[in-house]
Amino acid sequence: MVKVGIDKIGFFTSPYFIDMTELANRRHEEPGKFLIGLGQKQQAVIPPTQDVVTLAANAANKILTKADKDKIDTVIFGTETGIDNSKSAAIYVQALLGISKHARSFEIKQACYGGTAGLQMAVEHIRLHPDSQVLVLAADIARYGLQTPGEATQGGGAVAMLVAAEPRILEIEDKRSFYSDNIMDFWRPLYRRDAVVDGHYSNNVYIDFFKQTWQTYQRDYHCNIDDFQAMAFHLPYTKMGLKALRSIVNQSHHPERLLAQFESSRVYNACVGNLYTGSLYLSLISLLANSETLQHGDLVGLFSYGSGAQGEFYSGRISEQFDRRPLKTDMEAMLSKRQKLTISQYEEMYQAGLPLSGGDKQFDTASDHSPFILEGRHEDQRIYRQN
User: Fold this and answer.
1) What positions does the domain Hydroxymethylglutaryl-coenzyme A synthase N-terminal occupy (predicted)?
2) What is the block-wise mean pLDDT of the chain (387 residues), using blocks of 10 residues?
3) Least buried of 130, 166, 265, 356, by fewest C-beta within 10 Å?
């Protein structure tokens, strides 16, 4: 069987962030509640000149060549921060990037699971059509509202993955397990910009779904935890993944190895925050870039979760061609260039953006030097520009 998986991967987030200690102090909370209890150090703040379309386009722009754009025959966009109830965000990105108009483009929604659904669809497509390529996008802006219990788990960004045969990063195995149930742990009605969440309930469901999918995977594929060199998790905040790992790590003869790899996998998430569909894949980037012990051929487990709810556990092997150094250099350069906002500046930026009530809006774009930006809205149409 042809090897299929992630050939290229890119990440983009806002050039602005806040410090979680400063947020805790402003909210009259102990900083340890955010730094240790949640495992978060910083949080990306998305300006009004960026939305999921521009975030995804900027992420993909970092990895795609002209040859890639000509070869891509499918664009799949996983998001729960949709910009339209009808038209997909994928169509906008396809046009902004100049991807072949002969490609299929569509959007997938199932809370934070959409990116994984898109990745698995892409893998199956390449197995049938090994000469083609698929662009998978996972982009979101996590919002719970100012001075709410969920405020400390906000953030945003985008991951772009080019899926192809003979991949140079991660070979996706044809092994996966699922678990789903109709529950109300997190949702966002059409009339709200901010999500509604039952935090404690969602935490419990997340761990339950992880155990369900992990146990099914073990049973179906006759494996054990020590077959895996590392595990990557959906990380709306990094402590959540650690709780899930701790629920099974006693099954391992080498628990310290898995725990050390987890620390590598949460470095960037702790500095960016929650990006919903992209959170698992930012964690994967963090693992690949920061682990000094992963080797070619090592098996990595991946747990994806989307509230409402859908869980999936699947596996991949590090490609023989993988080199972590360019990925680490790019990530650290981007994160180091960000500007720290005061809490007052963050609050002002948070409340900017396109109003749900409609109407024309023109943004001041002078300070956003990203390759792709959102200029505003005119006659109910979003206006995008390439710098």
Assistant:
1) 3-165
2) 95 98 98 97 98 98 96 98 96 97 97 98 97 98 96 98 98 97 93 89 95 97 97 97 97 96 98 98 98 97 97 98 96 97 97 91 94 97 96
3) 356
**Of 112, 125, 171, 271, catalytic:** 112
Sign, CA torsion 154/158/164/169: negative
DSSP helix/strand/coil, 149: coil
Residues 107, 171, 234, 271: which is the catalytic one?
A: 234
**pLDDT for residue 199:** 85
Give the closest residue to 4 by CA, choosing from 316, 376, 370, 326.
316
243: number of CA atoms within 13 Å, CB side?
Answer: 20
Question: Is 40 in contact with 279 (CB distance < 8 Å)?
Answer: no
177, amino acid identity = S
H/E segment holding residue 382: strand 381-386
Q: What is the 3-state secondary structure (H, E, C) of 241-308?
A: HHHHHHCCHHHCCCHHHHHHHHHHHCCCHHHHCCCHHHHHHHHHHHHHHHCCCCCCCCEEEEEEEECC
Q: Which domains does the chain have, with CATH numbers?
A: 4-170+326-386 (3.40.47.10), 171-321 (3.40.47.10)
- What token pair was written down for 100? 């072949």
Asked if 28 is an active-site residue, the reply is: no
Q: Does residue 80 carry a catalytic annotation?
A: yes
- The whole-angstrom separation of Cα 330 and Cα 123 is 26
Grouping H, G, I as helix, E, B as strand and the rest as coil, residue 187 is: strand
> Tokens for 230?
């590392």
Q: Which residues contact 65 (CB under 8 A, 6 or more apart)?
A: none
Q: How far lies 334's CA from each of 49, 339, 344, in Å?
A: 18, 11, 24
Determine the Cα–Cα distance for residues 138 and 9; give it in Å rounded to an integer: 11
Give the global pTM.
0.97
Which pairing describes strands 16-19 and 42-44: parallel, antiparallel, or unpaired? antiparallel
Distance of CA 101 to the CA centre of its chain: 26
What value, to the nearest 5°, has the Cα angle with vertex 50 and ends 48 and 56?
A: 160
